[in-house]
Specification:
With 201 residues, the protein is of the alpha/beta class. Helices cover 33% and strands 16% of the residues. The longest helix has 14 residues, at 184-197.
Length: 201
């Protein structure tokens, strides 16, 4: 998994509340088990009309936000079904960090497993970042995981809290498989010892 340390990029404002996983990646795109290729379908029903043309008013279709790396969103982001395709689509689009007042628990945890940093902040702090994001591509936001800060284009620094274990996993680029492989030597030693002590198993 790609490490997350520090990014500086364009932030897209999406003040909608209760954005669920079906809005993030509709059910017809859940047939694949690949993590790549879903970015084009991110927010499909809001991004495209019935003929597959871009809807110009949608934030990620606007020229200044087409390469956004941060998404500033409304309350209860990622609610709904527990589809892991949602963070896959977000990451594949190029968004590495989502900031909102709150997240659905399963989506929140799935983000960490897929190299995305979800940051939960009080509404008044999200409002500051939303306003900054509305400035467009000239306003670049910095997210520093090591320092646990978000810095606006005007230099305002907003600290955030994060679980120390989840922080470690993102900084080191460790998903569940990576965490297991960190213990490969201990696992191999156990298997060798177990085979010697219980050869009949």
């Amino acid at each position: 998994m790609e490490k997350f340390e520090k990014i500086t990029g364009v932030a897209a404002p999406m003040p909608m509340i209760n954005v669920d996983t079906d809005m993030i990646i509709p059910k017809q795109f859940l047939k694949t088990i690949k993590r790549s290729g879903l970015g084009v379908n991110l927010f499909h029903e809001m991004r495209y009309d019935d003929d597959g043309n871009d809807i110009p008013e949608f934030v990620l279709n606007k020229p200044q936000y087409r390469e956004a790396e941060v998404l500033v969103a409304g309350d209860n982001f990622g609610c709904g079904s527990s589809r892991e395709h949602a963070p896959w689509a977000i990451k594949d689009f190029g968004i590495r960090c989502v900031i909102a007042p709150s997240f659905a628990d399963i989506f929140y945890n799935n983000c960490f497993k897929n190299g995305i940093l979800p940051i939960s902040l009080p509404q008044e702090k999200v409002d500051v970042l939303m306003k900054d994001a509305e400035k467009g591509s000239n306003a670049r936001m910095t997210v520093d995981l090591e320092e646990q800060t978000v810095t606006t284009s005007d230099g305002e620094v907003i600290p955030f809290e994060i679980d120390s274990f989840k922080k470690h996993c993102l900084l080191e680029g460790l998903d569940d498989i990576g965490l297991t492989m960190e213990k490969a030597d201990a696992i191999a030693a156990y298997e060798t010892r177990a085979a010697a002590e219980r050869p009949w198993v």
